[in-house]
Amino acid sequence: MTTKPILAVGSIALDTIETPQGQRQEILGGSATFFSIASSLFAPVRLVGVVGSDYPEEGWRLFRERGIDVSDVQQVAGSTFRWGGRYSRDLSERETLFTHLGVFENFQPLVSNGNRRTGIIYLGNIQPSLQLAVCEHMTAARRIISDTMNLWIDMNREELEAVLGKTHIFLINDEEASQLTGHDDLEAAAHWLLRAGPSTVVIKRGHKGAFLATDGTHKHIPVYPHSRLVDPTGAGDSFAGGFIGHIANHDESHIEEAVIRGAATASFTVEDFGLEGLLRATPEGVEHRMENIRDLMD
Ligand code: AMP
Q1: How far is the CA of 11 from the centre of ligand 1 (A)?
Q2: Helix, strand, coil percentages, rounded to 5, for the chain
């Protein structure tokens, strides 16, 4: 099978992060950044997003080095989106310290003619109305995979449900799944989500792994067990990058392997601050960690 390209939208950010292992100020981050760097290991990626006039050259260089198509990333006057987060002692909880939308406030996603026919679309964490705006541009969408976060569940539930209605595969973490569905039980939450639109749901559970549900089947997939946790920021988007990178190379029947690839890819991200861990990942390194995860499943 030939590798299919992926079109992705999400935030391109400068993150300020505090974890028990240390702090970093204004480092490259954002859902679209983690996603595109991760998925570019496996497939061609076309990025849709916005940055401000202060966006560092280092960010452009990284995208270019990885062959990521940035022709639909707009650079406009103003400040790049900034996000600050602090993690609890065991890294299991995260508090948002600030969210400065900057150029996101007036962002109108545009997809160039050449990119509109992309069949695989990742709607990364971003206002649901912007996720919907990207869908409007797409003329040959065969697989729409989306993600979200607590902020949008609180503030934009209606638009989020409209995104769900268009979504084939929905990725969400366990806390957000229970917030959105009103169910703490994984199976009940997945059932609710499957009725809202998607035919496949992946509930990400941090160090507990991932729960994959399709109509009538479900499965738990463990995490790579040997990572030393330093900074979990971007783990969800890196998971999505590996997961969708797999889908871009295989047919439908490989969904469980896609989850394993997602978990293996994310394991690199959590091992260092920001993008540093993920940038050390190689396709071979990911394959190797996939084997370790499969061993746990036998
Ligand atoms: P994750 O850890 O996978 O949930 O993603 C973390 C990334 O999400 C960080 O790099 C942030 O820049 C980005 N982020 C945080 N809050 C928002 C938001 N409200 N909208 C878009 N991206 C966000």
Answers
A1: 7
A2: 40, 25, 35
Taking the centre of ligand 1 as the mean of its atom positions, its distance from the CA of residue 30, in whole angstroms, is: 5
Is the CB of residue 11 below 6 angstroms from any atom belonging to ligand 1?
yes
**Nearest residue by C-alpha to atom 14 in ligand 1:** 30
CATH architecture label of 6-297: 3-Layer(aba) Sandwich (3.40)
pLDDT band of residue 17 (cuts 50, 70, 90) is: very high
Domain map of the chain by residue range?
6-297
> Does position 1 have pLDDT exceeding 80, yes or no?
no
| Cα 124 to Cα 58, 77, 127, 170, 222, distances in angstroms | 22, 23, 9, 10, 23
Q: What is the pTM of this model?
A: 0.96
Percent of the chain past pLDDT 70, that is, above it, reads: 100
